[in-house]
Amino acid sequence: MIAPRKRMAIIASYLPGETYGLLGPQVAATIIQENTGYECVVIALTREDDKGLLKKALADYLTIGMPIIGFSTLSGRDDLFSLARELKHEGAITILAGPQADVDYLGEVDWQFHPHRFSGLSSHFSFALHGPAEQIIPFLNDPKGKTWRESPGIHSLDQDARIAQNTKKAWESDFLRKVIWNNLFRVREGSLEPLHITMGQVLQHIGCPHATRSRRVEIDYPASLGGGDGKRVSLSLKGCSFCDVAVDKGFQGSLDMETVLAQIQGLPDRADGRKITFELINENALPGLPTLLREVKMRGFQLSQVNLTLRADWFVLGEKHLREALLLARDMGIRIFLGSMGFESFDDRILSNLNKGADLQTNLRAIGLMRRIKEEFPLEWGYTRDEGANHGFIHPTPWDSEETEMNNKEVISLYALDKDILPEHSIPLIIHHASALGDWIRVIEKREEIQFKRDVSIIAWWQIGDHIII
Q1: Per residue in 300-323, is it b (16+ CB within 10 Å) or e — as a string?
Q2: In a designed cystine with 103, which of 91, 247, 322, 434 is the match (CB 3.0 to 4.6 A)?
């Protein structure tokens, strides 16, 4: 008789009512299931989900051996951090993985000397895993042993309660070719119920090319602290100043064509036999998109829709490639959809402080091109809010003033951005403690002898102590 496989679960943040896949956690679950003696599922958890019902579902599923539960793509949610701590105290092994796992486990810079800073999550999790998911294999092959603590990517507490940090290994494309897409579940009445996925993801770039080059930049003080009077902080940074991905991954390069095509081939099929809609993860996708579509056509893969998330500057530069791709899309009967473009602001001062690498005129050129292309390719091209796009617009920010507000409103009105571009709701600037803006905040705190409030791993730039400043 073949012994039943052991089981583990990965918990990830999710939005209510959605049916998208979770590429990172689902790849991790696939790697675990393909390379260890464990089955592994991903549980998508919203803020509204009953944690008691989740625990019942976990108890029913994790019936063999010590409970092992990974946490990934947590979106800074305190309820998930608290859940991990509870499960750990109840005897489970809890693992922090995914984006920012290392810095969130370690805590904010010099928190030991500044009690108001985020002290990290080492008490919430048994250990952290930073980098590629296959680094978990040595642990799962011998959980009770000690040698796995020397494995790449592992961050754990030693006997003296100090954090031991192991350098992560490089990404390997062989582990990224296959994704088991039917391993995503939701909790329904205390049981795990499969989630029908209608949109997947295909990884082509690891990280963002904008994060390859280090720059010295001057970032204004918050408007409430004299930012309009020329007070600035000089920082060396990579990528957008608010981007914690730039710190976490930087840019690890492109995957080879065969790996990308293997991911596409493995996507679930719709009822009509075409692949489900997928987001191509590559912020500079246009130059290589025609070649990818030709390869897809040559191999007989039937696509439905390719979603893109792009930067305005690279979008404008890629016009020729976009038109070529849209002609191919017309021939293949598919659609190319610009699901998100990171405009972030329509004021040059705010764009500079965000280190977007693009200015207002670039954003406006991109919008003009998006609209013209729609006239030429009405069936093959989509970009509007009504079609489901959610373009980046960050507001409020620390630098908002009467002048920036007036500039934004003038551009929005003049170019009718509320008609097709602006999202239903703007996103407030979020400053993760390990982003470049985290360094910016800490410099200001030291200079001005003030303390901004921390909301777990996020720095509440709008609140100094108990005083709201916006």
Answers
A1: ebebbbbbbbbbbbbbbebeebbb
A2: 434
Q: Which pLDDT band holds residue 1 (cuts at 50, 70, 90)?
A: very low
In this structure, are strands 184-188 and 191-194 parallel, antiparallel, or unpaired?
A: antiparallel
Cut 0.85: pTM above it: yes
Give the structural domain span for 115: 6-194
- Final residue before a domain boundary, out of 146, 179, 194: 194
β-partners of residue 458 are 432, 455
Note the pLDDT tens digit of each residue in 383-400.
999 999 999 999 999 999
Residue 1 domain-assigned (yes or no): no
Find out whether 97 and 133 touch, Cβ atoms under 8 Å. Answer: yes
Helical spans, DSSP H, in 90-173 = 101-106, 137-141
Single-letter code of the amino acid located at 24: G
Among 450, 430, 431, 453, CA closest to 440: 431
**Helices 78-89 and 51-61, packing angle to 10 deg:** 50
Report DSSP state, residue 268.
Answer: P
Q: Which two tokens stand for residue 38?
A: 């464990």
Q: Which of 85-99, 151-165, 193-207, 236-250 has the lowest mean pLDDT?
A: 236-250
Contacts 24+ apart (CB under 8 A), 78-82: 78/455, 78/456, 79/47, 79/51, 80/11, 80/13, 80/45, 81/121, 81/124, 81/456, 82/124
One domain, residues 86 and 204: no
Query: DSSP label at 221?
Result: P
DSSP character at residue 6: E
Determine contact, residues 73/42, Cβ cutoff 8 Å: no
What are residue 343's phi and psi, to 5 degrees?
-65, -45
